[in-house]
Amino acid sequence: MCVTFRAVPELLDAPIHDLARRIRARTLSPVELVDAHIARIEAVNPRINAVIAERFAAAREEAAAAEAQVMRTSDADALPPLLGIPFTAKEYIAAEGMPLSGGVWARRHVRAERDAETIRRLRGAGAILVGITNVPEGGLWMETYNAIYGRTRNPWHLGRTCGGSSGGDGAIVGAGGVPFALGADVGGSIRIPAAFCGAVGHKPTGRMVPNTGFWPEAEGELSAYLVCGPIARSSRDLMPILKVLAGPDGADPVCRPWTLGDPDAVDLRDVVVFPVESNGATRVRRVMRQGVQRAADALAARGATIAELKAPAMKRAFMIWSSMMTAAGGPSYGEILGGDAPMRPGRELLKMLVGRSRHTFPAAMVVAAERVTKLIPARVDAMVAAGKALQRELEDILGPNGILLHPPYSRPAPRHYGPMLTPFDFVCTGLFNVLEFPSTTVPVAFDRHGLPVGVQVIGRRGDDHLTIAVAGALEEAFGGWRRAEPAARGRGAAADAAAAASPAA
User: Fold this and answer.
1) Using CA atoms, how far apart are residues 2 and 85, in angstroms rounded to an integer?
2) Which residues are within 8 A (CB) of 386 and not within 5 positions of it... i.e. 6 or more apart?
3) What is the pLDDT of residue 146?
4) Topology annotation, domain 8-247+258-332+374-500
5) 440: which strand partners?
6) Torsion of CA 369, 455, 17, 501, to 10 degrees
7) For the chain, what is the radius of gyration of the CA atoms?
8) 203 backbone dihedrals φ, ψ, rounded to 5°
9) Which of 461, 82, 472 is nearest to 240 (CA)?
């Protein structure tokens, strides 16, 4: 393969569509590309602890095979769409031979026997899995740490959380370790890490991507609320990945076909934008509200129409999310964490006092809250009905050209343990899981501490192309993703970003 010399940082900053074009043109070797990203992971991972299991040797072999495929193929358009592109996946998504503990101590020795359907599809499209990333214990928390692999840190500031549960994915994409990562989202687990780490994240429409091979198994309506999707460097890369992931597999009973639109066909002059600075219940910081307003102003400058949304039911976001999750059934969180027997949160909290628990404090508190929620079934039924009504109301308001702009969280990445002080703020994203709406998170600013500020673009079911197109316009306006440089100590990349942060942020 004819390869011209280039500085490695160029490869660590380039989006997938650019890398794929170079591979097809035979000016970039998949081996060179994979080697560059492996070297980057090895350089940054000791500081951020994002990748907890690697398959570097196998990835290099697959890169060599991809290079051979490029060289023997005369028609570049016939090559798989993601050929030679390295990626990671969170540790809830099965990848043959790789850990599948879910951060649960009782499962610390479990390895996946086969690939999840999403991993199989990405590999079939030519993407190369280089590693598995860290997750919170059991998944339902926005701090990525557990007793098996420890804590993952934000690449912009090591003292801040990277989010969860796809926190390892967000951190390694933010640090330039891979061009994209496969995450999963049931309450914000793609969008919150993307926002905290300055990346682009997309939660697809519910029922669009099969969850076959995900642990713990998502059954019934739960599989409509849980969706696998990408965290990446560029919004332009989201739809090509989504096209690979989307569609029934014959095993996930709720997954159904969707017609995927074309983001390039969206005319912003036809788009109606509803800026929503808060759901009315969550206390959203000024910098996040300003992010929403700046995004709305940028879209208005491109010809979009700005309108006001009145949906008072959004104030009940947490009760709607928790009730619809409870009604969806499936194993309880306590059962997931306990292994042979359900976790007893009171007992574990006492064991934590003497340093003998293998569980994390947030996990025990989530189990306790889950038990309380299940004691009020009448309230659950009422909130499920309210959620269904809100879904219909918002879809009627949005129509085929409407989007919401909404904060992905109440503030930029908090300090470690900080989310425990505001445990319900995840509903900024979680509400849209149970409504099954697509949502794309994109960076629009840095705050005064140099931390990324993201905004969430939300559309009605099936309008993934619209949210991706609007996110692309915001990238053009504000610069999009940039690579973080984790420092050995202190603020690292955040200090440089703070110096250049917009006064409006």
Assistant:
1) 18
2) 313, 316, 319, 320
3) 93
4) Amidase signature (AS) enzymes (3.90.1300)
5) 202, 457
6) -120
7) 21
8) -95, 110
9) 82
Task: For the chain, give every domain's residue range.
Answer: 8-247+258-332+374-500
Q: How many residues does the chain have?
A: 505
Structure tokens at 3: 């390869």
319-352 core/surface letters (b: 16 or more CB in 10 A; e: else): bbbbbbbbbbebebbbebbbeeebbebeebeeee
Cα separation, 107 vs 211, whole angstroms? 20
Structure tokens given for 282: 């969550």
Residues near 244 by beta carbon (within 8 Å), at least 6 away in sequence: 81, 82, 121, 122, 124, 125
Active centre residues (catalytic): 90, 165, 189
Contacts (Cβ under 8 Å, ≥6 apart) of 175: 40, 44, 48, 50, 155, 197, 483, 484, 485, 486
Residue with tokens 């904060």: 407
Residue 492: which residues within 8 A CB-CB, separation 6 or more? Answer: 155, 156, 157, 158, 484, 485, 486
pLDDT category, 370, cuts 50, 70, 90? low
Q: Are 450 and 275 in contact (CB under 8 A)?
A: no
Cβ-contact 435, 390 below 8 angstroms:
yes
**Cβ proximity of 401 and 270 under 8 Å:** yes
Specify which residues 154 forms β-bridges with.
Answer: 157
Following DSSP, what letter does each residue of 61-88 receive, concatenated? HHHHHHHHHHHH-S-GGGS-TTTT-EEE
CA angle 429, 431, 432 (to 5 degrees): 75
- What lies within 8 Å, CB to CB, of 108 at 6+ separation is 101, 148
pLDDT greater at residue 171 or residue 499: 171
Contact between 79 and 41 (Cβ < 8 Å): no
Contact 334, 343 (CB under 8 A): yes
Please give the model's pTM, rounded to 2 decimal places.
0.93
Angle at alpha carbon of residue 456, lines to 319 and 288, rounded to 5°: 85
pLDDT of residue 494 exceeding 70: no
Residue 421 burial (10 A CB sphere; 0-12, 13-18, 19+): exposed
CA–chain centroid gap for 320, Å, is: 21
Report the distance separating Cα 323 and Cα 75, nearest Å: 52
Checking if the pLDDT of 366 tops 80, the result is no
Instruction: Identify each DSSP E strand in 114-171 by its residue range.
Output: 128-133, 145-146, 150-151, 153-154, 157-161
Signed CA dihedral, 23, 29, 34, 40: sign only: negative
Measured CA distances, 178 to 85, 129, 201, 396, 451 (Å): 8, 10, 14, 39, 20
Predicted confidence at residue 423, as pLDDT, reads 87
* Tens digits of residue pLDDT in 189-203: 999 999 999 999 999
CA distance 443 to 150: 27
